Amino acid sequence: MARAEVVVGVDGSPDSVAALELAAEEARSRSARLHAVYVYEPRRTTEAMTAAAVVAAGTWTSPTTGDSMLKDAFRRDDQERAEAKQHAEARLRQMVSQADADLSGLDVEQSAIGDEHPAAALVRLSAGADLLVVGSRGLGGFRGLLLGSVSQQCVHHATCPVLVTRG
Question: At 156, which helix (H) or strand (E)?
C-alpha cells in the first residue's frame, strides 16, 4: 500500500503560507508525507531558436560554424534553465523554512517545477495524493476575487479532495 501524501502549493503569498501550515497539520494527523510544490516561471531561453534561424537561413555561417553556433546556444540555454531551477529550489527551501509550520518529524518532499502551469502541475500531482491544499489567492492577478485561478482549477479538476485556505 502506498504511503499517504498531502500535496501543498506554495508561492510565498500569505494564503500559501497558511496552506503550508494547514497541510503540515493534515500530514501529521494522517501520518502522511508532505509534498510542498512551487511552480515557477521558467526562464524563456531564446539563443538556440535565434541561432537555428540564422543557420537555417544559411547566409551568415558555414556548416561548421553553424554547428558550433547551435551547440553553444543550446548549452547556454540549458545552463540558464538549470540556474533558474536552482534559484527556484532555493526559493522553495526558503519559503518552507520561514513558514510557521511545525515540520518536525514529518517526511517533507519539495519540488520546484518550471515547465507546467501551476494549476496543471498541482492537478497532476493530486492523482497520487490523499489531499491537495492550496491558498485561496496567490501572487498573481485580480485582487478581490474570492478564489484565484489556480485554486479554482484545482477545486474543479483535482482527483483527490482539495482544501482551500485563506491567509
Answer: helix 149-157
Mean pLDDT by 10 residues, the chain (167 residues): 87 91 96 96 67 65 70 83 92 91 92 93 96 81 61 94 89
For residues 161 and 127, the answer to whether their CB atoms sit within 8 Å is no
Give the Cα separation of 48 and 143 in Å (integer): 38
Q: Model-level pTM?
A: 0.80
The pLDDT tens digits of the residues spanning 10-51 come to 998 888 999 999 999 999 999 999 999 999 987 666 666 676
Sorted by where each begins, the domain ranges of the chain are 5-41+88-165, 47-79
Contact partners, residue 69, CB within 8 Å, separation at least 6 = 51, 54, 55, 61
| Superfamily name with CATH number, domain 5-41+88-165 | HUPs (3.40.50.620)
Burial of residue 141, with CB atoms counted within 10 A of its CB: 0-12 exposed, 13-18 middle, 19 or more buried? exposed
Other C-beta atoms lying within 10 Å of the C-beta of residue 140 = 12
Distance of CA 167 to the CA centre of its chain: 20
